[in-house]
Design brief:
- It is a single chain.
- By secondary structure, the protein is of the alpha/beta class.
- The chain is built from 15 helices and 22 strands.
- It has a seven-stranded mixed β-sheet, with helices on both faces. Strands 9-8-7-10-11-21 form a six-stranded mixed β-sheet, sandwiched between helices. Strands 5-6-22 form a three-stranded antiparallel β-sheet, with no helix packed on it.
- Strand 3 (about 20-25) and strand 4 (about 35-40) form a beta hairpin.
- It starts with 9 loop residues before the first strand and ends with a strand.
- The model has no long low-confidence stretch (mean pLDDT about 95).
- Bound molecules: nicotinamide-adenine-dinucleotide (NAD).
């Protein structure tokens, strides 16, 4: 069934609810307000938690087959609305339409892929007298706290993992990007019983209200490391189960034997997709000194040729960054680069608009101690660094508080594997980066997170482990 994409509601107990007060996001390409969305209160949250608690009784007892069928019906409805969702995503997030279309396609792949996985039930001991089984049971009411960079994909991933394993879920979008997530929940009410999937939009108070709520049993959080710490502290009070997917500062190590004509265009995309607002993408590029100059010059040339503008226009690659806060942070980092006299190679004249456009910038061999190397820019600002010694570059690559992704690029797969085996990150890649799939667990080392999402491992994160002891005598 087609949706109305002009009015936005909370979804509570399979009803579309307006709130007394509303708020709105901003179209980052124009600076103009997007439509009004609900501003949820503590009472709205209480209602949603009560409905989720009621729904859990039956939903947790439905079979995996029934739950899979509901998830597939939901995916079909998302697919039927994919063009409108992608256009809405561009309008709220700023990413170009083709990247928004890919995000919707990935969400479909995740929904269908996650719900085709099977949770293990393991017989740990089997004797004449005794059987011991380990199995997984749903936790209860889950909350999915979603960031603004991949609002649709990450909401679908969290929501599907929760409900497929028998939980109920309340989705809380970022205040910057509430639109697609509210529409996803509207589609979900056509497929799930009341209270199983709900969504609440709100401002900065809503996240802490959720993590404090005694009726919620599990939080799946994706966002910055700083907020992740606050979420963990809040969850500690009621010992909520918690998955944290946090920031990253991924290194890529480029060896001297790569084919530049093949590798540089790939790396350019993996550094700058979504205006570099992706947790797991190349944020520190270590290039062997033998090819450094040629690599840098080719990279600059490719980046300069990528079109910048409103993501709703054709062929745009660089949209705006998503919000004013991110724009100000990026501007501050650019000021730091200039004031420290670093060699910043800037491309593009930013569009003449009130949008949040940041000039894509490549910083030529800055010191390892500079902010652009130490921090996660989350904007199209990339340090490219020279290396010559393998042991040294590994130390530099691992010298970060983060550990989300890391990659090695070489034609010599044995050498690449030897280097990759020494990288400290939850996802390690050879001759690629930023790959993910519904069957593959995804998570971070160090301050990049706790637990995993996706894969059987990710599904288990939505469950209690239960050990069943059966004395047969
Ligand atoms: P953020 O931490 O500001 O916000 C994330 C979500 O948390 C939003 O919904 C926000 O409203 C909510 N929130 C804010 N304060 C809260 C609190 N005290 N309690 C509960 N919820 C609260 O992050 P962001 O700026 O939206 O996203 C960018 C960050 O997310 C980057 O650091 C990026 O690397 C990271 N990220 C990580 C992954 C991953 O899977 N590891 C994926 C995408 C983004």
């Amino acid at each position: 069934m087609a949706l109305d994409f002009t009015t936005f509601y909370n979804v509570i107990d399979n009803e579309l609810i307006l709130t007394a007060q509303t708020r709105h996001g901003i179209n980052p390409a124009t600076g103009q307000p997007n439509p009004e969305v609900p501003l949820s209160t503590a009472e709205d949250l209480d209602r949603a938690v009560a409905a989720a608690t009621r729904a859990f009784r039956n939903w947790s007892r439905t079979s995996f087959d029934d739950r899979r069928a509901a998830v597939h019906a939901f995916a079909d409805r998302v697919e039927a609305n994919k063009e409108a969702l992608a256009a809405l995503l561009t309008r709220e997030q700023g990413k170009p339409l083709n990247q928004a279309t890919t995000e919707v396609a990935m969400a479909l792949q995740w929904a269908r892929g996650l719900s085709s996985l099977t949770l293990p039930e393991t017989i740990l001991e089997e004797t004449e007298d005794l059987q011991v089984i380990q199995r997984y049971t749903p936790i209860g009411v889950c909350a999915a706290i979603v960031p603004w960079n991949y609002p649709l994909l990450l909401a679908v991933g969290k929501m599907v993992a929760a409900v497929y394993t028998g939980n109920t879920v309340i989705v809380k979008p970022s205040p910057y990007t509430p639109y697609c997530d509210l529409k996803l929940a509207e589609l979900a009410i056509q497929c799930f019983p009341p209270g199983v999937v709900q969504a609440l939009s709100g401002d900065d108070d809503l996240g802490p209200m959720i993590t404090e709520h005694p009726g919620i049993h599990k939080i799946s959080f994706t966002g910055s490391t700083a907020t992740g710490r606050r979420v963990m502290a809040s969850c500690a009070k009621s010992l909520k189960k918690l998955t944290l997917e946090l920031g990253g500062n991924d290194p890529a190590i480029i060896c001297e034997d790569v084919d530049l004509d093949v590798v540089v265009p790939k790396v350019a995309i993996l550094c700058f997709l979504c205006c570099s607002q992706i947790c797991m993408m190349i944020k520190r590029l270590y290039v062997h000194e033998k090819i450094y100059d040629e690599f840098r010059d080719k990279l600059v040339q490719i980046v300069q040729a990528l079109k910048m503008g409103d993501g709703a226009e054709p062929d745009v690659f660089f949209g705006p960054v998503q919000n004013r806060m991110q724009f100000d942070k990026a501007t501050d980092l650019l000021d730091d680069i200039t004031s420290n006299g670093l060699n910043a190679i800037a491309s593009h004249v930013v569009p003449n608009s009130s949008g949040f456009f940041i000039t894509p910038t490549i910083v030529d061999n800055p010191p390892d101690t500079s902010r652009v190397v130490r921090e996660e820019p989350f904007a199209p600002i990339l340090p490219i660094l020279k290396w010559s010694d393998e042991a040294d570059v590994l130390t530099r690559a691992n010298d970060t508080e983060y550990g989300l992704g890391a990659s090695v690029w070489s034609r010599d797969l044995q050498r690449a594997r030897r280097l990759a085996d020494q990288l400290e990150a939850g996802s390690v890649f050879i001759n690629t980066h930023f790959e993910c799939a519904p069957f593959a667990p995804f998570g971070g080392y160090k301050m990049s997170g706790m637990g995993t999402e996706l894969g059987v491992n990710g599904l288990i994160g939505n469950c209690n482990s239960q050990t069943l002891w059966i004395r047969k005598g």
